[in-house]
Amino acid sequence: MALAPGYGMALGARFISGLPHGAYFGVGSIVAERVADKGKSAAAVAAMVAGMTFANLIGVPLGTLVSNLLSWRLIFWIVCLIGILAIVFIRYWIPYLEPLPNNGLKGQFQFLKKPQPWLILFATTMANTGIFCWYSYVSPSMTDLSGYLPQQLTWIMVLAGFGMVVGNYVGGRLSDRFTPTKFATAAQFTECGVLLGIFLFGHLSGIALILLFCCTMVLFSRSAPEQLLILQNSRGGELMGASLIQVAFNLGNAFGAFLGGVPLSHGYGYQYSAAIGVPFAFMGFMLLWRFIHRYSAPKAGMA
Known about the structure:
mainly alpha; Growth Hormone, Chain: A; 13 helices; 0% strand; globular
């Protein structure tokens, strides 16, 4: 990307750079679960995800600043250097772990014969769809709906990134305390309230900031428990399960961006994008509610 002479190569570089995303976070969640102390699995997964939250809090605004002051190409050279450092750290700091059992390609899909992983995957997709109906348009929403100036957006996005950091930390800790299933279900119900609040009060600048913080906090509070849930319900196919939960996250992002744009294309305000997200968030909540009452008994290993 740093050397791209034009749009075509830049687009290709962007596509290639996105390919490892699901695999990296999928394997990372498996490693985090296996090296965690007993009863600290969700917190360990949250610690792994914390890198992404700090990137949104610090990296995005810092990258924007460097791009404006110097060159956007410099940002990608910096990212390249960080990637090299990450390889070195993984090589020397991650302890040796016994390989997962080789069940073959067919064996990796066996867990999908059960309803539990499907409930988790669909709940995750619906929840992210609900959030990203509005969050995909957060910048114009904060200016056109909430009345903030464009030059204030950098600090507003820092606040959003701080919400991600807080949500990820809280989600990991409370999931270990109350079980991932219960916390993820409560977080998805809270998401419904946040989106409804944006629809009703997003035009009030002060309340809009609070709701933005709550939105990103809830979004990332679900990350660790939902990744842990899919690992607990894909034994024998953990790599496939860990990858599929990333697919669910990103499908929700894509569906949300599309569906949230529908009312905008018909001339409605940004608060209606949040309204579109409410039923999807509620469907995610109901799917996890079903999971709790049908499959989260102690005999299912979800104590």
